[in-house]
Amino acid sequence: MMLVGMLATLTVSPYFQLIPHQYTARHGLPDQPVTAIRVHGGKVYCLAGDVYVLDGERWQKVANPPLTPQQMAPEPPPKLQYPKRFYPHQQMPNMDGIPQCATRDAAGHWWIGTSREIIVTNGDDYLLPIKPEPGGLPYFNVTAIACDHQTGWVWVGFSEGAAVLQEGKWRYFWGRRWLPGNRVYAIALDGARGAWFATDKGVARIEARQMRLKDKAEHYEQINAARHNRYGFTADCQLLDPEDPSKFRYSATDNDGLWTSITVAAEAFRDATTKDPQAKELARQSMHAMLELVYKTGSPGFVARAIAREDEQNVNLSDFSPDNWKPSPQKGWLWKTDTSSDEIDGHYFAWYIYYELVADEQERKEIAEVCRAVTNRILNDNLLLIRPDGKRTTWGVWAPEYLNDDPWWWQERALNAMEILSHLKVAIHLCGDQRFKDKYEELITKHHYLLNTAEGRVTDPPEAINHSDDELWFLAYYPIVMLEKEPSRRALIQLSIERSWRTIRPERSPLYNFIYGLATGKPCDVEEAVQTLQRWPWDLRGWEVRNSHRTDLVISQHRSRFRDLIATTPLPPDERQGLKWNANPYRMDWGGSGHSEEYGGAFLIAYWLGRYHRFIEE
User: Fold this and answer.
1) Average pLDDT over every residue of 517-543
2) Quick check: bond before 461 cis, omega within 30?
3) For residues 5-39, b (16+ Cβ closer than 10 Å) or e, as one string?
4) What phi, psi does 344 have (nearest 5°)?
5) How far is CA 360 from CA 233, 261, 272, 354, in A?
6) Distance between CA 338 and CA 394 in Å, rounded?
7) Which of 417, 421, 423, 580 yields a CA-CA distance of 20 to 30 A from 492?
8) DSSP 3-state assignment of 236?
9) Helices marked H in 446-596 — which ranges?
10) Sign of the CA dihedral with 570 first, then 262, 577, and 336 last
11) What would the pLDDT profile of 414-429 be if each residue is shown by its tens digit?
């Protein structure tokens, strides 16, 4: 495969991953607010009516505690005096705020949390306010505060969540991803860069663990292996008990092929980078599963959305009905129909990468034959994806009469043109058939498909922005960027990705940044991409997330295409849900009870693609 060597490789240093630990009534605490917490004599004590001590993973009531409830309570904050003078153009503190908590940093400054803001002072007449404003303090009502003298980090609790100030920027914590309850009463430092939180529904510890990105990748590999590998398919998973991930059911969904293609590519890049035999085996297992999506339909070249054994117990079949799930000619199997262009996008992406990096000669022949069958079927059906019953699938459309002539399909014109050109380029590379070359030429010369693609992603009107399409754009960009060498055609592909990336750049996606760098050879915000990987949450369960109450974010005047509130700036991954590349990073609020869990593929594909193409190294 072609490597682009024009960009310098970034060496990524170890960093501190924030990892949540939570303790509630399930761990021995009473079912009432925890109002104080202290680290004393190497042990952690909390106050929940009585004094409790943490013993392993259980809290035990202490008969004769070394600290009285009065000693455990946070120290009262100093009184704030109205300053005798103000300095020219000084930012004014809000003196109406009631002091509620305080701490001192290593330099001797008081950090005083009030009901309106944080005020920092060294005890004289200068008061520095840290205000709840865009880009500032995430919330106004400060209820707990602690300065870590070792790191300089400032940990803050609010009546709605918590935050930490690191290197001048705030990170916000809300909901069960981080805290058992969102009302924070007290904070105690753990002595190892992390902190303990006393909340209205239990105790939390946010651990700061030093690691490399490859250690994090291994963590996600373990999650995938434990709950997301369904005989090679990358499956969604429903946790029967969010507190016990060992109890779960797989879900066979519309996007089994797409999510599995992400796994194939991630493991192929990992194998090519590390020569790890486990990566090769995982890639092979998932690729063979993807091929079964073609074989099980019994209709040459038609790809199923998902397949399942008729007697399979531990799986939910999404949208189960006779119209959606069909019996396979291979006895004992069912397959799901109405396959979308999303799925086809994933198949060509995975076929190309696996063929180039992993496949042996026999596998290359098999992949080429499947690719030939799928491509011939699409061409035989006039660039439509037609079901075995003769009906057109809802979204399998690449034909000029739809993309160029039907106004209904204007939003798909550029994307679907890029998809089919990329698919044909892969088919030409894998199969070499003249028919595929002719159709590729025809779409470019007679139907201006390369010009279509140069429009890039849809951004106007803003409500039409489709983040699921963004993922499809970049999965289609990758193969054609690697395969199209003719300069004038490559220039239009580069124009397309330039236009797409220009508007998607604020999202700091490592997957999109790296593919943009491959396509253009230009700087592609590698440091920002690494920061996104570092901020990917350790816990992938789908907990409720709420950000619309925050004071540091600005709510956009627009709404998402699903009418959700969105921010004017994207949220980092550990402050939102939607941990796939098809999710909207601007969305502020998400429901969730922790009963679902994302797979780690979004992180893994971006990380290993970046490693393989030497954007980053460790």
Assistant:
1) 97
2) yes
3) eebeebebeebbbbbbebbbeebbbeeebbbbbbe
4) -65, -40
5) 21, 18, 13, 10
6) 7
7) 580
8) strand
9) 449-453, 467-483, 487-504, 510-520, 526-535
10) positive
11) 999 999 999 999 999 9
